[in-house]
Specification:
The chain is an alpha/beta fold. The protein has a 7-stranded mixed β-sheet with strand order 2-8-7-6-5-3-4, sandwiched between helices. Strands 9-10-13-12 form a 4-stranded antiparallel β-sheet, with helices on one face. Strands 1-11 form a two-stranded parallel ribbon. A hairpin with a 4-residue loop joins strand 12 and strand 13. Helix 3 runs parallel beside helix 4 and helix 3 packs across helix 8. The termini are far apart. The structure holds pyridoxal-5'-phosphate. Pyridoxal-5'-phosphate binds next to helix 3.
Length: 370
């Protein structure tokens, strides 16, 4: 055995910058408001919690590998064929599985400039090449994406609305994007924040999935459903795509608690409506209050806002982040997205939102006593 020999990862693996989750720590003794991962301040449906607790009596048994109860509940809610639904350990897992199934070395995955970073990680992990299309006004640009398509493009990823910008494409633009893609390119519509969008020209993409052979929509239980800890996502896909992903996924990729809680959560429309109403009330209030402080806010349709700080020394995003963290207000730095002068703030409880606005006011005014 030679000491000089050691296992070497495939090319691409060591090029990956690991995803850095939102912070969740505050200084000792300070009340913490975690506004760094777009979780809901309302928490999960009580019915989902009860369903998850129920499963703790059977922890020795493997879960149902087909997540039948969850797929049936989702299919009933959206009028879908349960055979076209695949569940994942969060939609992140499905984004990875789609990439592993459809992309390999020498092939390209395409996403837009400020697109969700998990796409890049999945592409590199599959040995593929990330290709980035420029955005306009922090919004995906269909023409730029179509210009970046090459014969090697396998997947186009579009978060709609996008994280971390909060911007969205109207459905006719999504249709135009799809119409411009070759039929062998998979279009992945990541609709993690679909429930929050209140725009008549928005659609998550169900119709497009139903009428095409190359469109997939992914959804998550981590955001409006308040079940991020359980890791539950799903996708609806053409039969051939669902089949490919089912072949490579772990046979028991969702735990029993996730399956049970997800099925109960989907059925609790009132709880989702309450979370959406809370966001609808606070998103404009927070946006206007922060703009009134002289900071630019990207118009968002999600449950978070991107706040832009001046580049001047001492007044920037890094200083603002430190100022807020010292007060127990945890926002998200987005330098990894090429946005070093911005912070992303999740819409939180009334108390949290008011605390951030007050603290930002003090920061902008240069006061440290607040
Ligand atoms: C949060 C988020 C997801 C989902 O994550 P999971 O917790 O893995 O389901 C997917 N896409 C975007 C754009 C997100 O912001």
């Amino acid at each position: 055995m030679s000491a000089a020999l050691r296992p070497v990862p495939r090319p691409g693996v060591l090029a990956i910058e690991a995803y850095v989750p939102g912070k969740s720590a505050a200084p000792a003794g300070v009340r913490l408001h975690k506004l760094s991962s777009n979780e809901t301040p309302l928490g999960p449906s009580p019915a989902a919690v009860a369903a998850a607790q129920e499963t703790t009596g059977h922890l020795a048994l493997y879960p149902d590998g087909s997540a039948q109860a969850l797929r049936t509940a989702i299919a009933a809610k959206y009028g879908l064929d349960p055979e076209r639904i695949v569940c994942g350990a969060g939609s992140d897992e499905l984004l990875s599985l789609l990439t592993y199934a459809y992309m390999g070395p020498g092939e390209e995955g395409l996403y837009s400039q400020y697109g969700f970073l998990v796409y890049r990680i999945a592409i590199l992990a599959a040995g593929g090449t990330p290709v980035v299309a420029p955005e306009r006004d922090h919004t995906a640009d269909v023409d730029a994406i179509l210009r970046a398509v090459t014969p090697r493009t396998r997947i186009v990823y579009l978060a709609n609305p996008n994280n971390p910008t909060g911007t969205y494409l109207p459905f006719d633009e999504v249709r135009r994007l799809h119409a411009g893609l070759p039929g062998d390119v998979l279009l992945v519509l990541d609709a993690a924040y679909a429930e929050y969008v209140r725009r008549n020209d928005y659609a998550a993409g169900l119709e497009l999935v139903a009428e095409s052979e190359n469109v997939v929509m992914t959804r998550t239980f981590s955001k409006v459903y308040g079940l991020a800890a359980l890791r539950i996502g799903w996708m609806v896909a053409p039969a051939a795509v669902a089949d490919a992903v089912n072949r490579i996924r772990g046979p028991f990729n969702l735990g029993s608690a996730a399956i049970a809680a997800g099925a109960a959560a989907v059925a609790d429309d009132a709880h989702v409506a309450a979370a959406v109403a809370h966001n609808e009330a606070w998103l404009p209030k927070v946006t206007r209050a922060i703009e009134a402080l002289g900071l630019a806010v990207t118009p968002s349709v999600g449950n978070f806002v991107l706040i832009h700080f001046p580049e001047a020394a001492g007044r920037g995003a890094a200083e603002a982040d430190a100022f807020l963290t010292a007060r127990g207000l945890i926002l998200r730095r987005v330098g990894a997205y090429g946005l070093p002068h911005a912070l992303r703030m999740t819409i939180g409880s009334a108390e949290a939102n008011e605390a951030v606005v007050a603290a930002l006011g003090a920061f902008v005014a240069g006061r440290s006593d607040a």
